[in-house]
Amino acid sequence: MSSFRKRALDEFSLHKPERFYVESEPVSQYFAKNLFDMEKMRRYLSAEAFDAVQDAISEGRKIGREVANQIASGMKAWAVENGATHYTHWFHPLTDATAEKHEAFVDPSKNGGVFENFRGEALVQQEPDASSFPNGGLRNTFEARGYTAWDPTSPAFIIDQTLCIPSVFVSYTGESLDQKTPHLKSLQTLDRAASELLELFGQGSSRVNAVLGIEQEYFLVDEALFRARPDLMLCGRTLIGHTAAKDQQLEDHYFGAIPSRVMAFMKDFETEAYKLGVVLKTRHNEVAPNQFEFAPYYSEANLSVDQNLMMMILMRKIAKRHKLKVLFHEKPFAGINGSGKHCNWSLITDKGVNLLSPGKTPGKNMQFLSFFVSVIKAVHEHHHLLMASVASLNNSHRLGGNEAPPAVMSVFVGRTLTAVLNSIERMVSENISADEMSKSLNIVGKIPEILPDNTDRNRTSPFAFTGNRFEFRAVGSSVNVASSMYILNTAVAQQLVAFRSRAETRIANGASRDEAILETIREFISESAAIRFEGNGYSREWLEEAERRGLRGISDVPQAFLAFMEDSSISLMREMEVLTEKEVEARYEVMNEIYVKKLQIEARVIGDLTINHIIPTAIKFQNTLIDNVRGIKDLFGPDEYKVMSERQLTAIRKISGYIQQLREDFHYLVEARKEANKIESPSDRARVYSDTVLPYMGKIRYIADKLEMVVDDELWPLPKYRELLFLR
Ligand code: ADP
Ligand code: MG
Q1: pLDDT at 386 over 60
Q2: Alpha carbon 491 to chain centroid distance?
Q3: Which CATH homologous superfamily contains domain 187-579?
Q4: Ligand 1 site, residue 307, Cβ cutoff 6 A
Q5: For a tag on the chain, would you pick the N or C end, based on fewer CB atoms within 10 A?
Q6: Each residue of 201-210: pLDDT tens digit?
Q7: What are the boundaries of each domain within the chain?
Q8: Is 139 in the pocket of ligand 1 (CB under 6 A)?
Q9: What is the number of the ligand closest to the CA of 353?
Q10: Which of 212, 215, 281, 460 to mutate to test the pocket of ligand 1 (most atoms within 8 A of CB)?
């Protein structure tokens, strides 16, 4: 067997389960041990410093230099006591990775030796040499500087003896260069809009938080096998590889018993997650072999995003101990399910009221309906932008794959709420006067209490209402979900503002409050009707129907990105003060750049696999067939040989054909790449990469996978799907 693959398989089969690192005490004893949470702040900060942090969190108030010094010193005391030697601003550039640059606490002291030092300035602001992060041209124009600034709303934590301080990353001139900044701004805008709409219901202006519960899907593979696959190592997915005879057909993996090796990993990971104050609730096998999921308990959206990114770091780290690799890629294996991050999203006031919970009393139901229809309308108005936000090279292999959400947006609300919305809307078509309508207000009273489990589930919907929250399922498993959530938040904020303003206009024109609200609800229902869909999102009929309704899906990725540059998107971001036009443009450029770079890498890797792995293997095997035929000819003479070798000759011809085809496709792939690389503009280059380079990837894979099925297993150089996909 190819020594590469054989060594990996030996290592895999000889693997002995690692010892567990789980704690013996109950979780509550060590929960949040590595998190500088409220309780630690109370212990380590002065009253003044503690209050300053609280004010910063609840009111966004600035923290002065003097107090910053006090906070830094308390934080340092806690961190050093807990084994930290370094600190870093932890930020989220536009790469979907997190970034950190560690500084030691120690400084030389005058009389020799060192002391631990952490000043307020270093806590509040740092200036990493950030010139090599994607910025979409934002920093070429002015100063090439970028700086990170502490986000006090997300507590600092310790990973790897390093104090990590969640931070935003902005250019010297104030443009955001990261995922966190627009997310924080969108949350602020949403809070304001939601609080103001609540005033209409006489609820005062309490604070409204968007909360998020992120379900994370992922794959695990053996590390030795992973290392024997250049494509997994460099691209996070298999670029070639025939499907295994058995994978998920028997539906025996989903919710099945968790393999013991995986269980050891999960327990270890959970222990560390608890120490970081993350309440992991759910773990289970997913549909595809070696695919799993975890979900923490939901929390305030900014925290949830940070926690999700912390968990990704942790999982990669812990997996090493177990000689495993975590694959966060959206589609690591062709032919079986891919992975996503389901974003469960709702709005909760500081008094703990979930604005998306239908509740029991009619008055509350009006409030619920107002928020509910505003979300639906937001998705309707910006459905293409929301889909664009989940578009990526990775996710394009998953979306629309009959397992993941379709590549076109719709909202599922369930039977009960559909009936409610329809009956309210019908009052319009039946031309019921405002007066009569106000009498029939009690229709709202007829809404049965909708319990979460009263809603029917529709797994084929990209955006589903699940009883007291919406679940956005199209988001990819490898991304920072802030990149989609800021758009959702902003779009919803816009509609909440519109809702209030329309209702107020009606009141100013003499309508009663209830009338005005109900009429606005009706209007919102009609205007957003096209986005609601209750049927099977995987069906061909739906895609046709969606087109008739004017809903735009993702046909290809660079095309989808264009949604960012549309007037409606730019004005949404500008009006709601989340991104300037320049910032949107920069993001658009970065998305295109990343698309091209990923495809460039994949094209190189598949080229390498073709020329240096697959073709030589095919030739080697072909030679053994040729030798064999020659031997038969020597032994039996020309007449008998013909009869005996007919199929052999066919096989030799077939393999020759494959090799020829691979060489040809490889040639065109390289040519296409060369041409595309000449193009200056990132969006044009992405366009051409998608049109000319991408198709050859598929062609090459098709042939390589055929060869995998005919070449002697002993010779095949790469671990196969059946070897990669079944951990015990
Ligand atoms: P599913 O049945 O959809 O797989 P899970 O239990 O795996 O659900 O995960 C659901 C996620 O939704 C969890 O993170 C949970 O905390 C979160 N969640 C529950 N209620 C809400 C809510 N009102 N708003 C936001 N997220 C919520
Ligand atoms: Mg789940």
Answers
A1: yes
A2: 19
A3: Glutamine synthetase/guanido kinase, catalytic domain (3.30.590.10)
A4: no
A5: C
A6: 987 767 999 9
A7: 31-178, 187-579, 594-724
A8: no
A9: 1
A10: 215
